[in-house]
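Write out this protein's structure.
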Amino acid sequence: MKRLLTLLFLAFTLSASAGSPIYKIKVKNADGKIVKMKAYKGKVLLIVNTATKCGFTPQYEELEALYEKYRASGFEILDFPCNQFGAQAPGTIAEIQEFCTSNYNVTFPQFDKIDVNGADESPLFTFLKKEKGFGGFDTNDQRGKFMHEMMLKKDADYQKSSDIKWNFTKFLVDRKGRVIRRFEPTDSMRDVEEWIEKTLK
């Protein structure tokens, strides 16, 4: 019995020390270098798939404001451009960075372009989608209603899939690597900020 308890304790300890699976994932930064997600261990993360030619692109300004406000408290925004939605993230990663810097003074980390759905999707987004599936658009909001109707025309069953639906979907990850919230692009940035504040406490 004593040996069994010891083994259980060791298993629990090893499991706890391993941490969240997110920290085992590797991504490629804008310079083409591999970055281990464990470099962000202990930080609160907002992970976003972005595009430079989208109706939601002005959210870059709001994201940068959040970054400047909360960065000193251990908050990071990780930006992953994706060209899968309306081909609205054209150009090279260097061109995307130039656009974001020139137009929105973006200073948070930007990574290489990726796929967030499909056979070539990033393992990071595979993990994020598994942890937090699609919760629906707020159809009481005009933009949410528009997105819902647009998605329905393409796929009547679109709500059943955890796939990313559009640019500027956001995942909030706490300091222990747990995905605690998914925000659709139509969700209020005020709500995003409130959740960031809660998670940083």
